[in-house]
Sequence to fold (603 residues):
Amino acid sequence: MNTPSNVPPAPPLESRVAAPPIKAANDLMYWSIRRELWENRSITIAPLAVAAFALFILLMTAFGLPHKMRNLPTLDAAKRHAAVVSHFSVAPTVIMVTTILVGIFYSLDALYGERRDRSILFWKSLPVSDLTTVLSKAAIPLVVLPLIGFALSVATQLILLLWSMVVLMGSGMSPAPLWAELRLLEMPVTEVYGIGVFTLWHAPMYGWLLLVSAWAKRTPILWAVLPIVVISVVERVTFQTSYFGSLMMYRFMGAMTAAFNVKATAKGHYEIIDRFDQLNPLKFLGTPGLWLGLLLAAAFLAAAVRLRRYREPI
Amino acid sequence: MPAVEARGLRKTFGKTVALDGVDLRVEEGRILGIVGPNGAGKSTALHAILGLTQYQGELRVLGRNPWTDRDQLVRDVAFITDVAVMPRWIRVSQALDYLAGVHPRFDRAKAEGFLAKTDIRRASRVRELSKGMVTQLHLALVMSVDAKLLVLDEPTLGLDILFRKRFYDSLLNDYFDHTRTIVVTTHQIDEIQDVLTDFVFLNRGRIVLESSMEAFESRYVEVMVNPEHLAAARALRPIHERPVFGRSILLFDQADRQQLAALGDARTPSIADLFVAVMEAAEARGAAA
Fold:
């Protein structure tokens, strides 16, 4: 019996194979990502729906703005700022939470669903490699959803700003105090920064979910969560410690302390981030957790690529 | 260069042996039919050829190792391994866009031409199409890829006879050009007998018979024997005998045609009849052993 390793090489045969035309790698990536968006319409619809809903509520509450603005002079500077800006930071926050949730559920299904519905055999009949496929799927939570989140955040904020001016002027007030509190350049930049650092920070989570989704024969959500729960419980029972749990918490929220100069209040809330001096990219880049996380993410994705090779429909 | 060359191809799933040392050589420009009962290893063999599964033994497809060179090989190969693999959410127009986007050898106009002959609408999703329409769509896509090797596993499952006939006509007239190689499995062997240039019988992971159609036609003769000649015909050692309407049809391997013509109506058998004969002989041997 021969194994592939002792097959005599046949270079004369292979050299006769004409080099086939190849689609450019970025074409393959472009169409693969479009394919994902076709299949998973929640990637665009869910953040859009949440943004629309948040915007609707915010536009309604904007009618209370004239009253709020009249009371502004009675507040100190910090509270005055918070009073105005909090109205504008709601939408970006809920949109970001939505995109993260969509990313999590998308990643869990990305390499599992195609095996469950057997379409993996169709995709594998086309000249798109496992590497391109896995990378295009990883690009959804790592690139596409953050971009959608940012675009929607800026769009809702712009609409809210224009509407707030209309409401203020409609009640005979000047929009100037509003403008004075809003940092129109710094706000979108801090949003890009925030979305960027959280996406990088969460990369190993998405990598892990994609890996589980390539591996699990059923209920990927269970296999994704179970090891974390088991390790936490075992640690708790054996050592009476909870390092692993804290590590998971750090992985989820740690970007707040690693990338920003902000302190949590006693209640666990963070102050509103809309100033450049609150951003600390150097500290973020110097955080070992960032690089370890990215390494881990790369390892998870490499394993997912490899697994997709061997995986058959379930 | 042979399109497919296998030596000692083996594949096991746990204790089940799916392929038990298959030697196979398919020259370029041939149309090979793989015939076998369910579980004979047909699909496993095709999966190995397409680099979808690991295997033991030696296998070259278009000069490449299908497992290690899969990404290169797949550009030159088109295949349907299962008719139910089209993603259910995709729209017909999206499938066309996507294939045109990723496949350097996909001819969109050709696919549109095939689809124009069907009732399939561009805006439909696969889940909205009937089973037969999904197969029509899949075949239209696959036949529009300018591949060197086309592999079809039960491609006409769920299609009515009219479409099956048209499909095989189209396969011969529009697709096959004597440089391409086609490997096909189907249970409706009789329908593709005229299409094939070669066939193999696969049973329990082994090839039990392989032949070109020319060799098959010159080697096998089926005779509807007149009752008075039955004893004489049986003396010529037929490989199979079956009764039809009170007469007997005897199948002969490498017998003298003139001698047989004197015993009754001699003709070339169908592959299906030969298949039944070979399988029953194998079972009889198995029972005797």
